[in-house]
Amino acid sequence: MAPSTTLIDPIPSPPSKRQKIFSVTGVNIEADILSISDEKGFEDTATISSHPLRIKPSGNAYTSESNLRDTSTGLFAVFPDELIIDILGYLDAESLSQLGFTSRGLYAFSRHEELWKALFIESPKSKLPFTWRGIWRRTHLSLPFSKEVLIPTPDLFSDTLHRPFHMSQIPLKPYASKIPSQNAILCLPDMTAEDFNQKYSTAPFILTSPVKDWAGYKEWSIASLVDRYRDVRFRAESVDWRLGDYYDYMRDQTDESPLYLFDRAFVEKTGGELGRGFTVPECFGKDYFEVLGDERPDRRWMILGPERSGSTFHKDPNATSAWNAVIEGEKYWIMFPPGSPPPGVYESEDHSEVTSPLSIAEWLVGFHREARRTKGCREGICKAGEILYVPSGWWHLVVNLSPSLALTQNFIPPTQLSAAIEFLRDQPGSVSGFNTKRVRDPYGLFIKRMEEQYPVELQAALEKLEKKKKTKWGTLTDTKGQGFSFGFGCEDSDEE
Ligand SMILES: O=C(O)CCC(=O)C(=O)O
Ligand SMILES: [Fe+2]
């Protein structure tokens, strides 16, 4: 592939020192000790490890006499790097390994971890108990670290091969520090339902007390959960892994976007034990989606992931709001109000699709600075024992600053009823989570149930929508009637 315009390793500042790092995965690698700083001068001395095979970004090819990707990949050399990876994606493990023996260039391509991740996840091995071995390739081949032979290819320049590992090494904590005071999400100890409905339900906030009072909160931790449910399978993206296997993975991996455990059946899987432990905070008590009974979409999830895992930008489904309670760890949230997609995120005209092909690290590296300066941006860190409220229609990206365990629930609070009705009525193609065999018309069903159980509230919400349609303001803005108010920082947010 033609070298890109990057002439040097795209790391913010030059390396000051090098040192040997002995990683948990057993790969001894040299690392650059770097000082990362932003335009406001935050400093974080961080370690960015070189690629395990010492592969470098494409731009460095300009300063080198040759590039293994051109001289040592045979006929593959005519293809762009991404296409080579796509083609290798059709090979089975045996063929991929054999191809790697043919040349140093193809050896480097054949070690690309994304290929091995796909091979393992799609293989029956991933459905059986397995031993996680620090990287996908070793895990798939059941290869102990001691049998691993690494041949460095420092004369191979490829953004495609270099980028994922590099992204996995970029320190993310600096992005969560020095939150500008005007962006800081409002923090309050607790809230009454009345205050929530009258003053606070249209902007994010963090409650700092309620989770600490949950029965069992003190006994819960990632480790105790794993101890008790080690052999129970939980959903992590497209796989159902035993919790013990996921825990081993979580503690020793270098993925750009670590597999994130997101399980909707955690109450059933733990014999009701986890369900009994939490109480919905009083202010979130009213939930109009309850009228759907068994026909409502999934509403609660247990979320577990390592440092750097998280959720890329999205809005919650069906214009629902959500609360997210952290049991262990810390989460950095960056949010934007309805109608204001974050920089770098593009929505289709009918709002049915969101395009953000970027990983969390890529988005932070490329867009965080601009996002912070964008009107409406809200940021905060939700710590263990705290709960964050996500209002309907708000965009959010979440990154775990340390290994985190959280519970989350989606709901329709009174002030967001009209937003949910509008969504179900006007965006049927984007409605999700319903069992389509049982529910053919989610909007019709919701209206029918509301008429039966809350006719007055339904009428008021429909009138609100009618009024919105008639007013010029309503047609000019698509904010679902939600403004956003400026918050006050938590005591310990880093004000400038
Ligand atoms: O904890 C997280 O990663 C955020 C989860 C989230 O945004 C969601 O469940 O919709
Ligand atoms: Fe969400």
UniProtKB/TrEMBL annotation:
GO cellular component: nucleus
Organism encoding this protein: Morchella conica CCBAS932
Record-linked SUPFAM superfamilies: Clavaminate synthase-like, F-box domain
Segments forming domain F-box: 73-119
JmjC domain boundaries: 269-428
GO molecular function: cis-regulatory region sequence-specific DNA binding
Superkingdom of the source species: Eukaryota
Pfam families listed in its UniProt record: Cupin_8 (PF13621), F-box-like (PF12937)
InterPro entries: Cupin_8, F-box-like_dom_sf, F-box_dom, JmjC_dom, JMJD6_ArgDemeth/LysHydrox
Stated name of the protein: F-box and JmjC domain-containing protein
